[in-house]
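User: quick one, sequence for these C-alpha cells?
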C-alpha cells in the first residue's frame, strides 16, 4: 500500500490490487490555498453526501464505490478516526476531464452572456437574468491540469479527443445524474445550480462515475427559500470562508495563521445543514 495523492481535502492510498482507499479530511481550501484550520466533521459530510448520491444514481451509471464499512478496509484504516470519512473504491483509468453541468445562468457563463459572447460553444437565444434557470442544463468540460488552473473546453473538443461514443456516454450520464439529483435536492430545499463530475473506465472499458459527487465542494448549492433571480443567491459551501478572507484582505494569502472560531463554527453548521436537507 502506498499513498499516491495528498490533495486539498483527500488522501488516496493504492492497495496495489486494483483497489484504493480514499480518506476525506476536514481540510478546507479557498483561493487555491489550503487553510491551516480544520472545519469540524466537514470530511464526514462530504463523504456521506457522495455515498448517498452514488447509491441513488447507480441505476444510471456504475460508480467506483466498493464499501464504506470500516471492517472491509485494511487494518490500518479501521481506527475510530477513519469512521465516516473512508471508502474503499475500484481503481480506474481516469478520464482527463472534469465534466461540468450547468443548470443556471451564473458565474463565468453569465459574464460571457452579458457581453453577447457564446460560452464554450453554447449560444443563448432567449434573454436571461443572473441566476436564472436555463431552459435545459448544459455540459462544459475542462481539462484537468497537473499544475495551475484547469482549462475550459467545448463539449465538441472533448468528444473529438475521446471519440464520439465515449464522449456521448459521458455527456448523457452527467446530465442524467444531475437531473435526478437536482430533483431530489430541490424537493428538500436546495437548488443545485452547477456541479462537476469525474469519470474513469474500468478494465472492461465501461464508464464509471468516480471521485466525489454533488458535494458543496464540487457544486454550487443554493438555498431554495432565499433564491431570487437577478441576485447572487445564498449558497451552502465555503463562500462564508471566502467572504471572511476577502473582508480581511487574506484571499490567496498562504501565510494565514488560523480561522477564527466563529468562522469555523458557522462553516461547519452550513455543511451540516446541507447534509441534513439532502440525506435526512
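Assistant:
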Amino acid at each position: 500500500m502506498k499513498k499516491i495523492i495528498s490533495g486539498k481535502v483527500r488522501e488516496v492510498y493504492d492497495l496495489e490490487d486494483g483497489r484504493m482507499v480514499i480518506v476525506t479530511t476536514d481540510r478546507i481550501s479557498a483561493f487555491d490555498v489550503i487553510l491551516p484550520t480544520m472545519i469540524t466533521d466537514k470530511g464526514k459530510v462530504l463523504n456521506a453526501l457522495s455515498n448517498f448520491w452514488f447509491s441513488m444514481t447507480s441505476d444510471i451509471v456504475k460508480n467506483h464505490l466498493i464499501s464504506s464499512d470500516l471492517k472491509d478496509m485494511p487494518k490500518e484504516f479501521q481506527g475510530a478516526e477513519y469512521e465516516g470519512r473512508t471508502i474503499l473504491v475500484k481503481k480506474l483509468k481516469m478520464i482527463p476531464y472534469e465534466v461540468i453541468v450547468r443548470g443556471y445562468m451564473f458565474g463565468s457563463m453569465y459574464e460571457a452572456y452579458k457581453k453577447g459572447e457564446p460560452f464554450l460553444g453554447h449560444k443563448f437565444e432567449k434573454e436571461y437574468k443572473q441566476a436564472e434557470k436555463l431552459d435545459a442544463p448544459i455540459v462544459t468540460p475542462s481539462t484537468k491540469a497537473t499544475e495551475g488552473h484547469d482549462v475550459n473546453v467545448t463539449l465538441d473538443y472533448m468528444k473529438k479527443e475521446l471519440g464520439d461514443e465515449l464522449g456521448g456516454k459521458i455527456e448523457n450520464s452527467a446530465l442524467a445524474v444531475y437531473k435526478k439529483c437536482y430533483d431530489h435536492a430541490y424537493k428538500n430545499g436546495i437548488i443545485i445550480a452547477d456541479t462537476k463530475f469525474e469519470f474513469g473506465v474500468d478494465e472492461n472499458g465501461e464508464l464509471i462515475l468516480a471521485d466525489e459527487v454533488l458535494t458543496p465542494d464540487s457544486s454550487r448549492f443554493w438555498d431554495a427559500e432565499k433564491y431570487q433571480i437577478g441576485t447572487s443567491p445564498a449558497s451552502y459551501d465555503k463562500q462564508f470562508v471566502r467572504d471572511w478572507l476577502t473582508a480581511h484582505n487574506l484571499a490567496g494569502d498562504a501565510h494565514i495563521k488560523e480561522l477564527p472560531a466563529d468562522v469555523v463554527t458557522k462553516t461547519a453548521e452550513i455543511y451540516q445543514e446541507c447534509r441534513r436537507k439532502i440525506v435526512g
